[in-house]
Design a protein that fits this description.
By secondary structure, the chain is of the alpha+beta class. The protein has one domain (2-147). Helix content is 51%, strand content 14%. The chain has a four-stranded mixed sheet with strand order 3-2-1-4, with helices on both faces.
């Protein structure tokens, strides 16, 4: 029971942090649809981030993506370690990009998604829920791509 309470508390803290980031304009201007890129893996950190996003009304636009067969295939498959989800136009399956391993994520999937997101003006919020070993590389690559 202690683990469940700890994860529940962490989920509430993450939700509060995300609400603060939204209020600060990190995901776009107030009153406009949120602009985001979510990078997750199948680690507990990735699963916790996805659970939190599912529960937040501010990220309701993400629900069709999370319920799409393309995302469910990633979730059930051992072939793909990472998924990159994005906001914006497109069918749910078009807003999911998967990568088999970290090298593919950094070289192909993340650049493809962030290039498409940069084409639309405005602030883009980045959400990363990956294991602690991969997080620095993902953050560094994403920041470099967002700078252009």
């Amino acid at each position: 029971m202690g683990e469940a309470k700890r994860r529940n508390k962490q989920g509430r803290q993450l939700e509060q942090q995300l609400l603060e980031r939204i209020a600060a304009g990190e995901f776009g201007a107030a009153g406009q649809p949120l602009r985001y890129c979510v990078v997750v893996d199948k680690s507990p950190r990735g699963k916790d981030l996805l659970l939190t996003l599912r529960a937040m009304p501010a990220f309701a636009e993400l629900l069709p993506v999370l319920d799409d067969p393309a995302f469910e295939l990633w979730d059930a498959s051992a072939l793909f370690q990472f998924a990159v989800l994005r906001s914006g136009a497109g069918r749910p399956h078009e807003r999911v990009t998967v990568a088999a391993h970290l090298d593919k994520l950094l070289a192909d999937a993340l650049p493809r998604v962030l290039k498409a997101q940069r084409a639309t003006p405005g602030t883009l919020g980045l959400l990363v829920g990956v294991n602690a070993e991969a997080e620095p590389a993902v953050m560094q690559r994403a920041e470099a791509l967002l700078r252009g």
